[in-house]
Design goal:
The chain is mainly β and 710 residues long. α4 crosses α5. The longest helix is centred in the middle third of the chain and has 13 residues, at 338-350. It is elongated.
Length: 710
């Protein structure tokens, strides 16, 4: 270091500023070094001096030069450096030059009321920065002012003052473009490459401190058209506008303060929620305490508020060491309308047509507690919830009067959960009565603590086992129970079927749900029409979707034909019947394919009689062409006839039913093989018939009309 540079550094002692403020030392050293030359320039004239290299601590200035022009009324001077570097600067400053056109140099003060700092850098859109300053030796006071300067696509101004061991810095930036900042500052660009980031910011900052460093500060940032994306667009923010402000103070190494973020416009989409102000500002405010020594951030109180929509408050402590970690967190929500909560925050994330027709009402509150080493606990309280899925007037599922609480823990002992409802319905017409479910929810599992009963029409569904698990393969549901007798008449009305006689009951050994498919484990037994129906391999796919699909194998055992045919206007038939429907598949509840047969059991010893009307109905189905023939023959004198066996088979594929009867005949097949007196045989001749036409005939028969044969 040259002797002169050593003197310059001595004039503005490094102890005036902390090591963090070495930039100020440089400015002072450079700006006030002309003072050293006053004695040399007394009496007017000019002095040119090259100082060479000046360095203190971790900053370095190369090629420092000083020019003095002293006058009677004002002094002029120029300072310059070819290169200035410091670790805290985002970029090296090249060709630093300061020109003071109006100043005053004495042994007690150095002022410059009109000066400009020349810098060469792409971030600066004007070659000069207007900079004025004053130094008062006796007051130990320095004031530096940078007037509005075009930078980073906007403009900025700053003030720096030091007096009696205390300093203050103010910064006022307008329209600072994040992309422009990123182009010049590597750290900002690294964040932009990871999180994205666009838009502009107005930023007001005030900092103050003393020789020990920063003591307090405040900031206010206004952002507009801000956007970001993170992790392959899993986290997206668009067109965000709002204000982020706050203040802090240093209390013995602990930074205490408060902040407030207000989002006025735009939208944020994450995998679990969506936020858009939609004219109602969203705010998140908190107090905070940060300990750099402990690397710990504490939020004694925070509050989230979305005007007239939702809100929550809480507190938390977070470790910001090598591994960011939640030490403690408590969140308590205000009471919120579930319809608003769902439509505002969840529906855009779910993006599933099933939820597009979901109607909700009622209120809920929630809590969340996290403690390091003790796990996570959450709770939801429901109050008079109404939920209905499906278009108005055609709802597939509904529950109303839902109350209770659901308590969840990721591990350890859990508190009991209870859900109850006053009623509901399935598929529009199957009424559900009041029920109470006692549940246990832990980790990825939910299970029923004790059996529950759900009234269904005039019967009830007894739930003996119910479990839900979220696995890697998707949600898994298991169910076991039984159905006590339900009137088929009420059930038929509920699902808009032809009115059926008898009762519906059965065992449900197990139901599982996985990947959108519901499957019945083992066999389901239904008691109906005096016999039984065994259902195997039952699978429901996309039950509440746009194209529900049903498949199963069905066995019919010993059904009472008189009860069955009495349900329709088919005509009376007595006796028993059995059969199978293999590989049945329904799409949108319409048959697409199956292989079925129905026939009189070989060992059936019940009375076999068939009415005239039933004869006509069967004749039309089989295409025998004898419809009405009985009424034109002597057989019209008999109301019913005896038969030995009856039966029909149909294999449906591609809309065509391949038909056959109870046994083959010389021409065609027997639909009814006569027996006793009077005896009648009904033959079928059509081996292939259009399925839609066959269904149309069945519907006309069921309605009591005569089928139209074309």
């Amino acid at each position: 270091m040259s002797p002169l540079s050593a003197i310059a550094v001595t004039v503005i002692s490094p102890q005036v500023f902390s090591r963090r403020n070495n930039i100020l030392i440089f400015l002072a050293a450079v700006l006030f070094s002309p003072l050293l030359l006053l004695h040399a320039a007394e009496g007017g004239g000019s002095v040119n001096l090259s100082l060479g290299r000046i360095s203190v601590a971790d900053w370095v200035a190369e090629g420092v030069r000083v020019e003095l022009f002293l006058g009677d009324k004002r002094d002029r001077f120029n300072l310059s450096a070819t290169d200035f570097t410091h670790p805290s600067l985002p970029f090296p400053i090249k060709s630093l030059q300061y020109e003071c056109h109006k100043g005053r140099l004495t042994d007690r003060q150095v002022d410059c009321q009109q000066g400009r700092l020349k810098l060469q850098h792409p971030a600066l859109k004007q070659p000069y920065i207007p900079l004025s300053f004053s130094w008062r030796k006796e007051r130990r006071q320095i004031d530096i002012t940078i007037d509005k300067t075009a930078i980073f696509g906007g403009d900025a101004a700053a003030k720096l003052s030091y007096k009696g061991g205390h300093w203050q810095a103010d910064f006022d930036g307008k329209g600072l473009g994040l992309s422009a900042v990123g182009e010049e500052i590597a750290a900002i660009e690294k964040l932009r490459s990871e999180y994205g980031g666009s838009g502009a910011v107005d930023l007001d900052i005030r900092l103050s401190g003393n020789q020990n460093g920063l003591l307090k500060g405040r900031w206010k940032g206004r952002f507009d058209d801000f956007g970001f994306s993170y992790q392959d667009d899993n986290y997206i923010g668009e067109d965000l506008s709002g204000i982020w402000d706050g203040a802090f103070v240093n209390r013995g190494g602990r930074w205490e303060g408060k902040q407030s973020l207000v989002l006025k416009k735009g939208a944020v989409l994450t995998p679990v929620f969506y936020i858009a102000p939609d004219g109602k500002p969203v705010s998140l405010a908190s107090d905070f305490v940060y300990s750099a020594k402990e690397e710990m951030l504490k939020l004694p109180h925070f509050i989230f508020n979305h005007l007239n929509t939702s809100g929550f408050h809480g507190n938390g402590t977070f470790s910001l060491g090598n591994e960011n970690e939640v030490v403690e967190l408590e969140v308590i929500s205000d009471e919120v309308e579930v319809a608003t909560l769902f439509s505002a925050y969840l529906e855009p994330v779910l993006a599933d047509p099933v939820f597009s027709d979901l109607e909700l009402a009622g209120q809920m509150t929630g809590t969340l507690n996290i403690k390091r080493g003790r796990g996570v606990e959450a709770g939801i309280r429901l109050k008079e919830i109404f939920v209905e899925q499906g278009a108005a007037g055609d709802a597939q599922f509904a529950l109303y009067g839902v109350n209770g609480e659901v308590n969840w823990r990721d591990r350890g002992e859990v508190r009991a959960s209870t859900l109850s409802w006053r009623g509901g319905h399935l598929f529009g017409g199957i009424d559900l009565g009041a029920s109470v479910f006692d549940l246990e929810v832990q980790g990825q599992q939910l299970k029923l603590n004790k059996p529950a009963t759900v009234p269904v029409l005039d019967g009830s569904l007894h739930v003996e086992r119910f479990g839900f698990e979220q696995s890697r393969e998707g949600p898994q549901v298991h169910f076991q129970g039984y159905l006590t007798p339900v009137s088929m008449e009420k059930f038929s009305h509920a699902v808009d079927w032809p009115v059926l006689a008898g009762q519906l009951s059965g065992m449900i050994p197990g139901i599982s749900y996985s990947s959108g498919m519901i499957a019945v484990e083992g066999m389901a037994l239904i008691k109906v029409f005096g016999g039984s129906v065994l259902i195997r391999n039952l699978v429901l796919d996309d039950l509440f979707g746009t194209l529900p699909a049903f498949s199963a194998d069905i066995g019919l055992k010993n059904l009472d034909l008189e009860t069955l045919t009495g349900t329709f206007s088919f005509g009376k038939i007595t006796g028993r019947i059995e059969g199978e429907v293999k590989q049945l598949r329904l799409e949108d509840w319409q048959p697409v394919s199956f292989d079925a047969w129905l026939a009189t059991p070989v060992e059936d010893d019940s009375r076999h009689r068939i009415s005239q009307k039933a004869v006509d109905s069967i004749s039309n189905l089989g295409g025998s062409g004898v419809s009405g023939a009985l009424s034109r023959s002597f057989m019209r004198f008999f109301d019913e006839f005896g038969y030995d066996r009856l039966g029909v088979s149909c294999t449906l594929e591609n809309g065509v039913c391949e038909m056959s009867g109870v046994e083959p005949a010389d021409q065609g097949y027997y639909l009814v093989k006569g027996g006793g007196i009077p005896r009648i045989d009904i033959m079928g001749f059509n081996h292939r018939t259009d399925w839609n036409i066959l269904v149309s005939k069945l519907q006309q028969i069921a309605a009591g009309g005569a089928p139209v044969v074309e």
